[in-house]
């Protein structure tokens, strides 16, 4: 029997936060306000887990400017390099609910439609002229911005573009205007840009860069292609990681079997759309339902009735329960430690070169997926972090102490929140240090040694841990 991992590229786990507003979608100039509204007004965080509140956080509809803690450090610290991991922005579903009409979302970029960003028209104009640079194959064949009157499967939406224009603007104000991370005459080798081969990740990366860079010069923009969502480059073969994943998927499957309300809900929905329950479940209805929810479009109806908010709440609640059990059983942690090691190893290598005074790759951007960020968050020990929302950002900052130039420290931020002292490798450091950051050595030791210690066994390097016998 095969089991399927629940990710938002295939399903979801619980989710993350920012201010939200209801948003109208428009087709042929008709506002969705005339349709039945399904999005409640957001409120302050409820005392108990609320599936609707969690879903609103996941949508991450841009509204007021976000407060963030990026770039905060004592005045005698100098910012040396920044490493940004993003999830792509809001996208059209990857799955459809069988025998229902697909939600009609417009994927052209329109200035008079919310959400909006002041750089939106300039972004479209710049992208429509085509790239003056060549990207690593096969990225050259991808469109540079979304441009379909009706979204195609998995396509970035206007909301997704605006989310990352906003991320880029925020990071520009902090890292370029305040900290002067890049010189005025910055060059291509001072950026490291990498993306998977999906249009939504390339376009999200371009939108963030357009908001971030003071001068978006195609001659200085070069994206590398990453075939694996884990960004593991030449280190992807890891049998033990896959064994952890199979055990985790089995845990998910058994938890679902125990949830009679979930099975009843799938049965009701299957009757509405007139397909076997098994087929409906395989079609992953939550992916499409979240699109309806985030874009304020009514759930689908047939002559047998309507999919409704109660169905949505049951599935969402199960995902939140799944997240809780996932933390307790720790099978996903084993998968994450091995899945995140290659990208973390690359990052500390880049940091160590920066400490030696090298001026290349001062700003690194990985444009990725939920299945990229989620293992990294888990591996770092950030068990309380919400599942990566649309346009989530995880940032590693490298700092130098001007009073002790040989000392370098790191800060880690998730969606603008400083989580440095929530990581497993630095949770005790602040008890005996006044610095609001963590020694770089702690992170290096964690990646080079402690990640393997946490897995048990005798492996002291990535290859041995991946090929451990008798797991």
UniProtKB/TrEMBL annotation:
Pfam families: His_Phos_2. Keywords: Glycoprotein, Golgi apparatus, Hydrolase, Membrane, Signal-anchor, Transmembrane, Transmembrane helix. One of its GO terms (molecular function) is phosphatase activity. GO terms for cellular component: Golgi membrane. Its main location: Golgi. It is a single-pass type II membrane protein. It comes from the Eukaryota. Transmembrane segments: none annotated. It is found in: Golgi apparatus membrane. It catalyses: 3-O-[beta-D-GlcA-(1->3)-beta-D-Gal-(1->3)-beta-D-Gal-(1->4)-beta-D-2-O-P-Xyl]-L-seryl-[protein] + H2O = 3-O-(beta-D-GlcA-(1->3)-beta-D-Gal-(1->3)-beta-D-Gal-(1->4)-beta-D-Xyl)-L-seryl-[protein] + phosphate. One of its GO terms (biological process) is chondroitin sulfate proteoglycan biosynthetic process. Interacts with B3GAT3; the interaction increases the 2-phosphoxylose phosphatase activity of PXYLP1 during completion of linkage region formation in a B3GAT3-mediated manner. Belongs to the histidine acid phosphatase family. Responsible for the 2-O-dephosphorylation of xylose in the glycosaminoglycan-protein linkage region of proteoglycans thereby regulating the amount of mature glycosaminoglycan (GAG) chains. Sulfated glycosaminoglycans (GAGs), including heparan sulfate and chondroitin sulfate, are synthesized on the so-called common GAG-protein linkage region (GlcUAbeta1-3Galbeta1-3Galbeta1-4Xylbeta1-O-Ser) of core proteins, which is formed by the stepwise addition of monosaccharide residues by the respective specific glycosyltransferases. This is 2-phosphoxylose phosphatase 1. It comes from Pongo abelii (Sumatran orangutan).
